[in-house]
Amino acid sequence: MAHVELSLSEVFVPGPQPPAEQESDNFGQWSTAVSHAAEPCLLIDAETNVVAISSSGCELLCLGAPEDVVGRPLMEGGLRLVDFTANQSELTEQETDKIPPLLALHSERLARGLLRVQGPGSEGLGTTVDAISTPVLTDGSVAGSLTFFSAV
């Protein structure tokens, strides 16, 4: 299980909102952070296209290289999710709509869940992954979701 530590360097005092140009760049800042992250993470936009993914995220999700995935829809970019039964059947569209990156996007809330990812041509059990997702806001509305992954 991933360990996360937070620290505050100063006390947060609510104040005026940042200018619109700074707030709208929020998505771009997350894209840069995810692209350079050592941790397995993923950023998708409101249309479910992959905006950024870390190299370790590609490796954990059996997706190849980031440049092969960025710009493509998440579920059409080679991500193969299977259920937790012995048969390991591929998830249906109705089931994939409930995975954390998509659930956070549509529900506009935090989402967490386990996924079983199977690589191309893999006949094994696949990799079980814990996913924690949060919606990302731009100009006060959901512009995408940010997900962190951890192998279980």
Automatic annotation (TrEMBL):
Residues 1-25 are annotated as: Disordered. It comes from the Bacteria. This is PAS domain-containing protein. The lineage of its organism: Bacteria, Bacillati, Actinomycetota, Actinomycetes, Micromonosporales.
